[in-house]
Amino acid sequence: MKVTITVNGKTHESEVEPRTLLVQYVRDTLGLTGTNIGCDTSSCGACSLHVNGESVKSCTMLAAQADGCEVTTIEGLAKDGVMHPMQTAFMENHGLQCGYCTPGMVMASISLLKENPNPTEEEVRIGLEGNLCRCTGYHNIVKSVLAAAQAK
Amino acid sequence: MIPAPFDYKRASSAAEAIALVGEYGEDAKFLAGGHSLLPLMKLRLAQPAVLVDIARITDLSYIRDAGDHIAIGALTRHMDVEKSPIVLQHVPLLANAASHVGDPQVRHRGTIGGSIAHADSASDLPATTLALGATYVVQGPNGVREIPANEFYVGFLESALAPDEMLTEIRVPKMNGATWGFQKFNRRAQDWAIVGVAAWKRGNESGVALVNMGSVPVLASSVSQAIASGASIAEAAELAASEAEPQSDLNASAEYRVHLAKVLVRRALESTNA
């Protein structure tokens, strides 16, 4: 089937199998491998990206369901070589260790602040409950999100 | 994991979706947010030949004040139920339960109708709407019928819906100032409840339902009957598992679930949320 999906501002028309997952589409069809596959069961959040501005787990969505939608991946955040404030906050606060969960954490965190611009520490922890860090580096991840909220 | 191959059809109205499913029979499944169905398809526990995507039927996504009840379109997402001023004001127990479904990413996609039609006793919203005495409106090839929540859940992942019927609306009676509690006991963030309880109380009237205490969501009628005849909350909560047939699994034994149900029912009924 044919899908038309705008990813990071660029519109793509692609022929996909109906069973193609959105995460496969961005990684394999478009070559945007910044979005990681972790658990593949909508638990870990590594594959989080934005569909129409909201965080979703792209391992549990079909490319067909994103037909006509605007998708943003981690590759689409920096503008003219300048990182998104959330990326800067993760860098400055050591919000990453091995980095595997980071693209998903950053995408989920941006969506979180869009819905709740000034969260408490507890609200950040609850808001990121769908994202697992295998290094258990949660403390600095939460610190990064709070710093990004302050920086705005 | 990638699902087995299937044909994908997109419906733009309930009538079109029902006609499409009628055409393909038992091989077809409705797809809403996909957060119950797609994981099952990836594991090959479900292998429909045709998916009928109903998520774009925008006139089934709404929340309306309908006088004595709140009417919620089946395709309303959990995030929209959780944040709706109408739901927060008139059925705060439902808003709170919706905020406990999965995680934000799941709530951006999953729908109240999908969760109820999936009829998983471990899910939060089937039991919550059961406790609230909701009515489900379903549409089929021969018209519309209403099914009370307490007649809807007939077995493990099995509801009173015919294969060619679609859940279109959930009608939830207003709580009119009742106190309420939602208790979800789990060991890890975002997990399903090992045991959950949705309960409300207004004087001697109450509604109590249990999550993951058997193959279907359980209405704890004995608790409400005890409260109606003057028992204390602590006394009534001892009857929490009277209607339940909990299973033992990796997370908890049946005995432990019974214990949890009693404690959580007491906590939910003692809650002063209003």
Walk me through what this model shows.
The complex is a heterodimer of chains A (about 150) and B (about 270). Chain A is α+β, with helices and mostly antiparallel strands and about 150 residues long. Chain A contains five helices and five strands; from the N terminus they run ββαβββαααα. Chain A has two domains: about 1-75, Beta-grasp domain (Ubiquitin-like (UB roll), Roll), CATH 3.10.20; about 85-150, [2Fe-2S]-binding domain (DNA polymerase, domain 1, Orthogonal Bundle), CATH 1.10.150.120. In chain A, strands 2-1-5-3-4 form a five-stranded mixed sheet, with helices on both faces. Chain A starts with a strand and ends with a helix. Chain B has about 270 residues and is of the alpha+beta class. Chain B folds into three domains: about 5-55, Uridine Diphospho-n-acetylenolpyruvylglucosamine Reductase, domain 2 (2-Layer Sandwich), CATH 3.30.43; about 60-175, Uridine Diphospho-n-acetylenolpyruvylglucosamine Reductase, domain 3, CATH 3.30.465.10; about 180-270, CO dehydrogenase flavoprotein, C-terminal domain (Enolase-like, domain 1, 2-Layer Sandwich). Helix content of chain B is about 35%, strand content about 25%. Chain B contains twelve helices and 14 strands. In chain B, helix 5 packs antiparallel against helix 8. The radius of gyration of chain B is 18 Å and the shape is globular. The interface between A and B is medium-sized, with 32 and 28 residues.
Comma- or semicolon-separated keywords:
heterodimer; A: 152 residues; alpha+beta; Ubiquitin-like (UB roll); 2 domains; 5-stranded mixed beta sheet; 5 helices; 5 strands; 34% helix; B: 274 residues; Uridine Diphospho-n-acetylenolpyruvylglucosamine Reductase, domain 2; 3 domains
Strand content of chain B: 25-35%
Q: Give the CATH level 1 class of the largest domain in chain A.
A: Alpha Beta
Query: Tally of extended strands of chain A?
Result: 5
N to C succession of SSEs of chain A: EEHEEEHHHH
Order of helices and strands of chain B: EHEHEEEHHHHHHEEHEEEEEEEHHH
Could you say which structural class the secondary elements and strand pairing of chain B correspond to? Answer: alpha+beta
